[in-house]
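Please check this chain.
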Amino acid sequence: MSFLYPAVLWGLLAVLVPLIIHLFNFVKYKKVYFSNVSLLATIKNESKSKSRLKEILVLILRCFTIICIVFAFSKPYIPNGQSAVNNLNGFKNISIYIDNSLSMSNVNKSGPLIEIAKQKAKEIIKAFSGSAKFQILTNSFEGKQQRLLSAEDALMAVDDVKEYPLSRMLSDVISKQNNFLLQLPNASSLSYIISDLQKSTFNVSAVSIDSSIKYTVIPIEASQVNNISIDTCWFESPIQQKGFIQKLHVKIKNVSTQDIDVATANLYINNSLIAPATYSAASEQTSEFIFSFECKTEAWNNAVIKIEDYPVTFDDELFFTFNSKNNLKIALINGKEVRGNELFNLFNSDSLFSVTNFNETQVDFGKLKNANLIILNQLNSINSGLLNELLKFYTSGTSLVFVPSEKIDVPQYNTVLKQFNLPQLLSFDTTKTSVAHIENKNNFFANVFEKIDHNINLPLVLKHYEIQKSTNSVFQNLLQLQNGSPFLLKNIQGNSNAYLITQPINESCGNFIKHALFVPTFYRMSLMSVKSNLLYYLTGTNAPIQIENSKIAEKPPVLKQKKGNVELIPEIKNIGNQSLLFLHNQIIESGFYSLTMDSALISEYAFNINRIESDLTSYSIDNLMELIRDKKIKNFAVVSNGNENINAKLLSAAENTQIWKFFVILSLIFMALELIVLKFFK
């Protein structure tokens, strides 16, 4: 048996107190004279011996009570195996991980959790002998942390620890400690993990434990786990234009036990307060609200949403960017039979679109690669070269519209349509009919019609292609003829949209080109071809960022923080008609960044801290220990109360059999026996 606090054993001197009281507690007797004391002598001797026995029993019980109480306060334990308590100075390599993620900005009655964690790390360092060496590990995983420090240098390293905007999974932390400790020549190693035990990052079940290392977790508990965070945001429309009203949806997450009745959020664009909004959120629920504002700048816009919440504030801001000068790029490839320029005039008359017109014999594939929508207008056939390019563009996100001519090579055209999951064309039907049904419930026609009159005059169709019917339809019928045959359909498979109009767009085949439905139909196809750009990216990731090929030259671009000192040259990979930037986890700070080349602005980006730690829910000590037992994880101990004053012996003894509770029970038993003796022993 060993003692965690052996100095408390000096309290055993308190046993002298009842001994002294017993020895000096002399009773003075008064003599009483009797004529015959023969009978009294026996009674006197008998009473005196019983009284003496009672006093001795009480004395023994009191001494044992004091001894047990002193033992309980000295925290006795039985060492298990080669515990660090048996030979504290035998451990030469100690790795101390200090969780300095932003959730450690939370507080308890002793102050910010990060400061408490640093204090615990110092207590560990001071408890070891001067020959011990320390690794101070934080979430930054910096190269300078991959070396051993003396106690003095380790204390200085702890003082330098600040909050870091990246969180780490427990499995990654232990893997980092293992890789470092196992390469050292001295195998006697200890690992300490000081953390708030957040469930989102403390993945105990995924850790890889090494049998040669003893692990101890020191929990730092917060007073409360209430938090309000801005989760995400998105625009209702994929296109933002100057002079138009924009609707920005924002999602708020309430991770607390209290409802939010009314609170205020502010939207800033280019450092100007644009619009406030109010929101409410029930406990443990998410809430959505909308900012409505007019876009006043025709360029890149840097925006931030702000709320107020204490004490965890890292997720109270959400940065995002949007470009209000973007044009939808339309590529129009006309067949030999096309006589008018109706489609070209439709898009060219609106500043929202940038349209390029090609003849089918003079297609510049280099100018097609950045198009959002390619319209194949009445081509008799599609050659293999054009088909291969279309497949590349379609795979990378470009939408396609097929408008057959009256003289198509049906088998060859069907071969092309099959590549894009579109149905097969049959004969050319010259029966007069009309469009009879608009599938207004489909997302394609969302917000196009306020109300559809049953007597509406729909386009007249004089000629159209029949469609091969199939039980396994892979398309949506958006506009339908009176005979049930499709007029406009869209595929429902693939990465992009592909449309097929079963009528050539000319006046000899019908009046669709002159009908009021013509403009909104092609506008919707063009708008739905736009893949909503990411408004922001997350820090500390390697998620690819897409840029346009045409903007990249031989000289690499530079990504620079707009308000800060971060500047780097990202890796560029060209995949198909896309150029992707890879940042390799180099962006750590949230905010706005500009991508430039030769001082010319290419794009602007916003980065935000990952919201994984916004949910402050943590493991309780009991839950964590139960999880460790269920997973049968060895060499892994948890300190019962990390908020108390801790020294290295307490940390090391966490894995030994503690028996102080046994002495508490014994002291209670001895006190109960003393009461029994005093009351019933006459």
Remarks:
- The first strand starts at residue 2 and ends at 3.
- The chain has a mean pLDDT of 85.
- The first helix runs from residue 16 to 24.
